[in-house]
User: Fold this.
Amino acid sequence: MTEPAQSPRPEPDRGNTVDEAGDATGDGKGIYWLLKNVLIGPAVRRIFRPRVEGAEHIPEHGPAIIASNHLSYADWIFMPLVVRRRVTFVAKSDYFVGAGLKGRFQRGFFKGTGQVPIDRSGGSASEGAIRAGMKVLERGELFGIYPEGTRSHDGKLYKGRTGVARLALEAKVPVIPCGVIGTDRVAPPGKVVASIAPPTIRFGEPLDFSRYDGMESDRLILRAVTDEIMYKIMELSGQEYVDMYATKAKQLEGRAVTGAPKKVRKTDT
Assistant:
């Protein structure tokens, strides 16, 4: 059943303490509450009227991973907006240095809400994301992740990277699949807002991977877990699935347009 997103109950800022939901409150807790419930959230809810399904699958207490598809930069706004608890993401460092109206908004939002910047140009980016995610989960909080690693350029769902599986197995926490629909119409690439249309955020039942305890170093297990998560996201989002990394698909599309020769590179894991 689809219903309008409800305003979460205000969560007072208490510094580095523990709130009613059992989350360790860290940097940006007060600013996050202010943005979500006073400065930005109410206006976004009134204008776009986001719909949420399956919110009951988000645990009220304890750590969990929310794994979502990624259609638009607006995903960072709409998905956390319909979750009562704070969701912390690892965000690419570009979001913290942008220029213009969109850049200032993103920079203020991500810095102010305690999101974690990651430089994805280096080889240690995935390790940094894992470490950051572990710290968030160890505090008993919700960690949001986009397994595709980047936004979909054509609305399709692409192959997930195995970092989400490794994090789930190492932290021993459930994964809540999430399908976001319509945010690419609200804010397509290159535009702040293109359409006033209600996006839908669907959460599935938590996925328990405890049967794989102690197997977080097995690449086949990591791939199997990741594929199971992506299948659930596909069911929720209704997207066409492509068994290829989104970054690879973008490269191939770019070569098809420009006629550039194919480069030889190592296969991603």
